[in-house]
Amino acid sequence: MAAPRAATGRPAAGASPNPVLLTVAGWLVPGAAHALVAQFGKAAVFFVVLAGMFAFGIGSGGRLFPFVPSDPLLFLAALAEWALGLPHLIAAVAGYGRGEVVAVSYEYGNTFLIVAGLLNALVVLDANDVAAGRKRP
Known about the structure:
Layout: H1 19-28, H2 32-36, H3 40-59, H4 72-82, H5 86-94, H6 106-132
Helix pairs in contact: 1-6, 3-6, 4-6
C-alpha cells in the first residue's frame, strides 16, 4: 500500500518511513529503500542491476576484500563492497569472491564489485531524499 501523498506529490507529513529503516533496508537489499517509498519500478530495476553487477563481479573472478586498516586502499575497497549488504554477506559465507589473480577478468571483477557497492550507497541516499521530500518521486 502506497503512502499518502500531499498535493505536491511528496509524501504527506508523517507518512514517510523512518530514515534509519530506509537506510538499513536499502543497505541489506538493493532497491528495498525505494520499495519502502512506493517506487516499485525503481526498486526492481535497482535490485536487478546491482545484484547483476555483483554477480558478474564474482563470476569474473573478483575478490571480496578484507578490512585491513593498515592498507587504506584495501580498506576502502572492502568498505565499498560491503555497501551492498546482504549479497556480499551471502557470497562471503558461501565461499565466493576469493579472487583469481591470474584470471584475465580479475580487475574487471573487482571493479564491478566495488562499483555495485558504491552505487547502492547512492541509491539509498536517493531513497532518503525522496522520503524526506527533498526530491520528487
